[in-house]
Amino acid sequence: MASVPHGHWKTSTFLAGLRNDRIVAPLVLDGAINGQTFRAYVEQFLAPTLAPGDVVVADNLGSHKVAGVREAIEARGASLLFLPPYSPDLNPIEQVFAKLKQIVRSAEPRQRETLWRTIGTCLGRFSAVECANYLAAAGYRRSA
């Protein structure tokens, strides 16, 4: 177990997808994200949740643009769109991350495993209505 003495945290990365009714493919990683790790996440966790016609919207992190990411998404019949630079208001998952960070901070986990367990427990607090509202607030609408 890794303790967190005096509040000095090591970096953890949370990845997930946001659908109109739920959060999909959640994953917590030890450390920062890089292109190879993101591609593995897409191939192993996100892509299996995709259906033909789905649209994956990503920001402009370099790790999101590595070879293999688009191919894994398009192999499922989905498409990948990138947001304009510096446009967090168009990225609805940012609202999920903000709420998640607030909940995690209030739980004050002091060990890595407790942090991960707290995040897993928190995911159940996102209702279908809330997920739809995050998408609507960012300007997305559900297609018929």
From TrEMBL:
Q: InterPro entries, alphabetically?
A: RNaseH_sf, Tc1-like_DDE_dom, Transpos_IS630-like
Print the organism lineage: Bacteria, Pseudomonadati, Pseudomonadota, Alphaproteobacteria, Acetobacterales
Q: Where is the signal peptide?
A: none
PANTHER family given in the database record: TRANSPOSASE
Q: Which organism is it from?
A: Acidisphaera rubrifaciens HS-AP3
What is the designated name of this protein? Transposase
Q: Which Pfam families match?
A: DDE_3 (PF13358)
- The Tc1-like transposase DDE domain covers which part of the protein? 6-115
GO MF terms here are:
nucleic acid binding
Q: Which domain of life is it from?
A: Bacteria
